[in-house]
Amino acid sequence: MSRFHRNSPTFWLFLAPVLFAFAMVIVIPFFIGAYYSLTDWNATARAGQGLSFVGLSNFTHSFTDPGFIYSFIITTIYTIANVIVINVVAIALAIAVTSRLKLRNVYRMGFFIPYLIGGLILGYLWQFIFNNAIPAIGQSVGLLSGLAEAENLILGKVPTAIMALVIVGSWQYAGYIMMIYVAAIEGVPEELYEAARIDGASDWQQFQKITVPMIAQAFTITMFLTLVNSFKQFDVNFSLTAGGPAVQFMEESIFGTELLAMNIYNTAFVGNDLAAGQARAVIFFVVLVAFALVQVTMNKRKELEL
């Protein structure tokens, strides 16, 4: 073991390829992007040629842009809802597949498969379900005639469109988070449950007093993953709602379900304002890091309390 001590050249030699790839793909592009966010880089000016330094004007403009402000608000709402729904569904599925349920391994595979489907494909698939399948079911059943106008009822209104994004995101990601909970639950000693059953503890009491404290570290991991994944949501947002429908905000018409990642994309590549899009990406990075640090810190404190 001493051969691979952190002060050993061998240790850094093995680590060098990973550090090089990380620097080339993450660190250096980030600082280059941060520099471009301080310029007037756009579609007509090539990066590094004929750029003018404009300071923090791209950042100040972003904080006064109704579209960016609205995207930040709606992304925060979506993230909170998505984190709650995904974790509740995932832990419920984890408890189900770690019980004495028959074919539980088959269920594990079935619940995990949606995670393997690409976000763009998933968005178009659920768009078909919301716009075509649900109206067809409503017409065949004859109970809810309004389902014939499901596009207006679901994806045509901001609150229900956000709910649709949460449903699709949860359907895709809950199976992956479930596997983390499964690994944590299976690591809880069975003797604790046997002792609790002998003392007359109910299933809910066992879950509350044994399972939750013993898998506290899993909560920290899953909350972090779902928080970051929700904030970075783009592909499902792009294919399911494309940012629509339009709403009025601060006396301007803007996209009603345009999350932050999509707002950055539209600013840079649709509006051809690359510097502004890069500035918003820097803001996005700082906000995401802040949220993640707060979440991890709070969860770590909760682990000690449990």
Could you explain the architecture of this structure?
By secondary structure, the protein is mostly helical. It has a single domain, classed as MetI-like (MetI-like fold, Orthogonal Bundle), CATH 1.10.3720. 72% of the residues lie in helices and 3% in strands. The chain has 13 helices and two strands; from the N terminus they run αααααααααααββαα. The protein has helices spanning 9-36, 57-64, 66-97, 104-112, 119-141, 150-155, 158-186, 190-198, 203-214, 216-231, 235-240, 260-270, 274-305, and strands at residues 246-249, 252-255. The two termini are 34 Å apart. The mean pLDDT is 88.
List the helices and strands and how they pair.
Blueprint: H1 9-36, H2 57-64, H3 66-97, H4 104-112, H5 119-141, H6 150-155, H7 158-186, H8 190-198, H9 203-214, H10 216-231, H11 235-240, E1 246-249, E2 252-255, H12 260-270, H13 274-305
Antiparallel strand pairs: 1-2
Provide a short characterization of the protein structure.
This protein has 306 residues and is mainly alpha-helical.
Characteristic key phrases:
306 residues, mainly alpha, MetI-like fold, two-stranded antiparallel sheet, 13 helices, 72% helix, globular
Mean pLDDT across all amino acids: 88
Give the distance, in angstroms, between the N- and C-terminal Cα atoms.
34 Å
CATH architecture: Orthogonal Bundle
Estimate the global geometry from the Cα principal axes.
globular
Unreliable stretches, pLDDT < 50, 5 or more residues?
none
Radius of gyration: 24 Å
Number of helices: 13
Mind describing the biggest β-sheet? Answer: 2 strands, antiparallel
H and E string: HHHHHHHHHHHEEHH
CATH superfamily name? MetI-like
How many beta-strand runs? 2
- Helix content range of the residues, please? over 70%
